[in-house]
Write a structure and sequence with these properties.
Structural class: alpha/beta
CATH topology: Metallo-beta-lactamase, Chain A
Helix content: 10-25%
Domain Metallo-beta-lactamase: 35-221
Number of domains: 1
CATH class: Alpha Beta
Order of helices and strands: EHEEHEHEHEEEEEHEHEE
Radius of gyration: 17 Å
CATH superfamily: Ribonuclease Z/Hydroxyacylglutathione hydrolase-like
Bound molecules: zinc ion
Protein name: MBL fold metallo-hydrolase
Shape: globular
Number of strands: 13
Pfam family, one: Lactamase_B_2
CATH architecture: 4-Layer Sandwich
Distance between the termini: 5 Å
Oligomer: single chain
InterPro entries: Metallo-B-lactamas, RibonucZ/Hydroxyglut_hydro
Length: 239
């Protein structure tokens, strides 16, 4: 299994438009950037996209224009779905997977698009291209949001999606002991947000869940460019 981080930013991306903070200023000067968070998963010729960010067109171009065989949406927030129409005249719209409430939301949002919807019950594993996927509810009020476990028979990769640290125990059990774990870390230590983890909360969760390796994603412009444990756009992991 190969994972590519197509983006590691939050809903605004970094640099934040119009922001003159040191991190955005340095990013604009050096060309460093965090596109909106999305993951590409490749396994035995099958290519899976986790969330369709508003930056999807550029993310596809930057990764060699892969054909996407399926999409999984974690939740119905703009930064996680708005790019779906970027498949228009590029390829047939991929089939869309996710929890029933999320898939139904996407069918309403994209009522003008013909795509096949495949609602999946949380905590019930399903297979996609030789991968076993299991959705697990997280805590990102008020949007119903689902992290996921991806297994290829040898390795286990987990992703929290957007969430505060108060994750249901059933999902913690699902995501325990991953070989590679991605966690939402919006803000630096000291900033507590009702919908997201901050840096230390995300690092603590990775430890609590016995992740063998982890990267923090969905980073805001307040997280420094060289903070330990953060993921970078374009990072690839071959497992
Ligand atoms: Zn988000
Ligand atoms: Zn800034
Ligand atoms: Zn969100």
């Amino acid at each position: 299994m190969k994972i590519t981080l197509l983006g590691t930013g939050d809903t605004t991306g970094t640099p934040l438009v119009g922001c003159t903070c040191p991190i955005c200023t340095e990013g604009a000067a050096s060309g460093r950037e965090r596109l909106r968070t999305s993951l590409l998963v490749e396994h035995e010729g099958f290519t899976l996209l986790i969330d369709t960010s508003p930056d999807l067109r550029r993310q596809l171009l930057q990764t060699g224009s892969p054909h996407i065989d399926a999409v999984i949406w974690t939740h119905g927030h703009y930064d996680h779905f708005a790019g779906f129409n970027d498949f228009y005249r590029v390829q047939r719209y991929p089939p869309g997977y996710g929890a029933p409430v999320v898939v139904e939301y996407m069918q309403n949002q994209f009522h003008f698009i013909r795509f096949t919807a495949h609602p999946q019950e949380p905590y019930v594993p399903f297979t996609l291209g030789g991968l076993t996927i299991t959705l697990g509810e997280v805590n990102h009020p008020p949007a119903p949001t689902f992290g996921l476990l991806i297994e290829d028979g040898e390795t286990r990769v987990g992703y929290t999606a957007d969430t505060n640290p108060d994750i249901p125990q059933r999902t913690k059990d699902l995501l325990d002991g991953c070989d590679l774990f991605f966690a939402d870390a919006l803000f630096p230590n000291g900033i507590v947000h009702p919908k997201h983890m901050n840096y230390s909360e995300a690092v603590s969760l990775a430890g609590e869940l016995h992740a063998k390796d982890f990267r923090l994603v969905h980073l805001s412009h307040k997280i420094g460019w060289d903070a330990p444990h953060i993921g970078y756009d374009g990072d690839t992991f071959v497992l």
